[in-house]
Amino acid sequence: MALVGALALAGCAGDWRRPALGIDAPAGWKDGGPTKAVWPAPDWWRGFGSSELTTLIVAAERENQDIGAAKARIEQADAQVRVNGAALIPLITGSGDTQLQRSAGSTRVVGGFQTALAASYELDFWGKNRATLNSARASAVSARFAEEVVALGVVTSVANTYFALLASQEQLAIARGNVASAQKVLDAIQARLDVGTANALDRAQQRSVLDQQKATIPQIEQEIRTNETALALLLGRPPVRLDVKGGRLANLRTPKVAPGVPAEVLTRRPDVRQAEADLAAADYDVTAARAAFFPTIDLTAQGGFENVALRTLFGSQSGFYSLGAGLSQPLLNTALPGQLDLTKGQHREALMTYRRAAVQSFVDVENALVAMRKTAEQERLQGAAVRSAREAYDIAQAQLREGAVDVTTVLATQQTLFSAQDNLVNVRLARFQAAVSLFEALGGGWAASGRPAGGDRLVLAPAATPADGAAR
What is the top-level taxon of the source organism (predicted)? Predict the structure, then answer.
């Protein structure tokens, strides 16, 4: 009867047919693109030509707390590999024991001494322990790719935030220039009013334009400070310890990068590689769950010395040993089928996650490619719009001084120029951020670095003192 129960339970393990990966990798990109791949360099951010951006990113890679936490998870995963690997090595323990005993009504004290070594080992006949170890190893690989995902996210966030800071600084300069221009127009209108060729309404309208331009400055200044504090957080520092000089987006370069065929992107994206490692770990978990249905074979051995006298404890007459072997078979364990179904469900979830990561990588590249192309086109057109608006505004100003144009025309050209200038900065920012998105979509430069996934250990920078001033 027991044999029938054992066979019935073992039969629940069934056959395990791994589903196909089912990745539909197209031959090319919908938005086209160059035929020759230009993959990101390990330090791809240097291509923007900003030494300050490079300094910020290098500091973030070294000091960011999210990256540090990801590195700590690598250490945990490595430790779990050692824990799971212990089942493949015999367990050896040593013991020593001494006893003194006196019976009631007797003055004689009887002593006893014992020292022994014991070993136990489970034969991994069905591969359960090996599968458990391999699952932990795959999880450790996944933790390394997860660290690369976090690091790539931090680097791109630093770049995007830095570019947003530069855009805000440009908009602040434009706003102050607009205030100066609006003040000149107001002075011209006041001069005409003094000689009777303008009226109070004209002056009030222009003063409204001037006040509106002044009102935009505090908000832009707030955006600058907010971007600075966001950079400080990414660098793991208090905002007071960070001083960013900034500059102009127009002074930066756009590094060249181009995707190869979509299938190559899958090997360069750390998030896809992480999902792949998680899928491998889930596969090993299914193997271990199936092996749990079969008999377990344990070997034990013990040997040592035992004697009533310590001085003769290690004599040949005091030695003893024992050897044993045992076999155990689950007969009625309803948890095992449930555990197997659980691991199979987790494997299917990991498979779907891997497929989604692959498709997401294709989507990210397509979006970044079209964004790069369209923002470059939009920046060119918007630059032309700024030049036309500037020309119209200069003509209107000259005619205003000569009294050959009314104030309404000047107001219209002012608003058109101010709006066009702001739009140009926003479009230029979008182009640089699209470039960052393309680098991120291609997996950054970790695959080109030649170093193992996971990178170097976290190095904490020493805390600054008040005398140090702001961190550079």
Answer: Bacteria
pLDDT tens for the chain, 472 residues long, are 444 444 444 455 556 677 777 787 788 888 765 568 888 989 999 999 999 999 999 999 999 999 999 999 999 999 999 998 888 888 888 777 776 665 555 555 555 667 778 888 788 888 888 999 999 999 999 999 999 999 999 999 999 999 999 999 999 999 999 899 889 888 888 888 888 777 888 889 889 989 999 999 999 999 999 999 999 999 999 999 999 999 999 999 999 888 888 888 888 999 999 999 999 999 999 999 999 888 888 888 887 777 655 566 666 666 677 888 877 777 777 788 889 999 999 999 999 999 999 999 999 999 999 999 999 999 999 999 999 999 998 898 888 777 777 778 888 888 899 899 999 999 999 999 999 999 999 999 887 777 776 655 444 444 443 334 333 3
- Which domains occur in the chain, in start order? 19-92+127-295+335-461 (1.20.1600.10)
Give per-residue burial for 342-380: e unless 16+ CB within 10 Å, then b. Answer: ebbebbeebbebbbebbeebbebbbebbbbbeebbebbe
